[in-house]
Amino acid sequence: MKQLLVFVLFAAMFCWLMFSPIYKHVLVIRQALLQQEVNYMLEIGASGNYGYIDESMVADSRQRMGEYGFNPALLEYEVTSTTGGEGRSASEPLPRGAGLRLKLTYPYERLLDIDRLIGLAPPSEDARIAGRGMRMSEYVP
């Protein structure tokens, strides 16, 4: 009986040691892709041609992220500005010097549930990984 218990505990630990680094790597890659997308969208949105991030840019971003394996419906985009302006409207672009902020989040999707094998609690169901950034608008009317 004692040998069976040791075997089960060893098997659980062995599974965690084999597969945990893979899941951690996937998490790191997902976070890096989110941050890369935020940087790209801010580069375009804060340029002298735009001064905003509108819904068509967000839709294009969802499509790009879907190509990387993200579920586009689960992506959440939060666009704000340092001046209190909306930052999402082509009719009201942010003027030069105003900060355009973007926060892009995505759920963990039970990615770290394997950590339960060694007694670590995974993130809650509503926890999200995020990429965020801010750029100063270069738009001049």
Could you provide a short overview of the structure?
By secondary structure, the protein is an alpha+beta fold.
Descriptive report:
With 141 residues, the protein is an alpha+beta fold. It has one domain (2-136). The protein has helices at residues 2-45, 55-67, and strands at 76-81, 99-107, 128-136. It has a three-stranded antiparallel sheet, with helices on one face. The chain starts with a helix and ends in a 5-residue tail after the last strand. The mean pLDDT is 88.
What's the helix count?
2
Helix and strand pattern: HHEEE
Morphology:
rod-shaped
Q: How large is the radius of gyration?
A: 21 Å
How many separate domains make up the residues? 1
According to DSSP, the number of beta strands is 3
- Kindly estimate the percentage of residues that lie in beta strands according to DSSP: 15-25%
Strand order of the largest sheet: 1-2-3
